[in-house]
Amino acid sequence: MRVQRPKYIDDILLRREYTKLLRVSSGKAVVLLSGGIDSTVAMVLAKKSGLEVIGLEFSYDKRPAQETTNVDEICEITKTELYKVGYPTPLRKHPFNMQETEKIEIPESNSLYYSIAGGFAREMGLEYVIGGQILNDRVNSKNERSTPNHYKTLNELLKREYEPNHPRILMPLIYLNKIEVVRIGLSLGAPLDLTWSCPNNNTIPCGDCVQCLEREEAFRISDDSK
Fold first, then answer.
1. In what order do the strands lie in the sheet with 28-32?
2. For the chain, which residues make up each domain, given as ranges?
3. How many CB atoms lie within 10 A of CB 119?
4. Mean per-residue pLDDT for 112-132?
5. CATH architecture classification, 7-224
6. Contacts of 78 (CB under 8 A, 6+ apart)
7. What is d(CA 26, CA 219) in angstroms, rounded to the nearest whole number?
């Protein structure tokens, strides 16, 4: 799915003026943290840009345990206050035995993540919600929910819900690929060694999944370009 990249992005990358990707230089923000490269770079970028930043982490069933461990370590080393939210899990009562319940799994949804983050930001008096979605997410998922227009729509909904003091979603990395994001992270001193990319629930990355292979390629090419 091709989305035209704005010219200002190429100018920023050429000049290595990475903090201009955020297009704001003050204020308070919450960054959605997954423990991966992209959200970690987004958080460090926000801090380097002059924003006051807190982190928000979502927990859900079958999430790799190493991810949440790494989020804790990243927040500790970057001195970032972290809030944790459990992903909604509805419970249904058994019709013939009200003591028995059944869990209903709700599919993961960025719309739900950012809706909750928007409400959280409004309650905490924060101006921005920052996410780490990148170009690779769009290529891998091949759907409209990964495009800049999708987050523009979510911003319009937040504005309607919370006018006049509504938080705004910022996606500083959404036009960048994984290699570019790694280069930015290394340039900004982000703790990329503490990030976790593998979706498998192991203590070490599998090295074979799409996420692991993208990570390995991005670091290799970034090292070769030095």
1. 81-86, 52-59, 28-32, 128-130, 168-170
2. 7-224
3. 15
4. 96
5. 3-Layer(aba) Sandwich (3.40)
6. 43, 44, 47, 191
7. 31
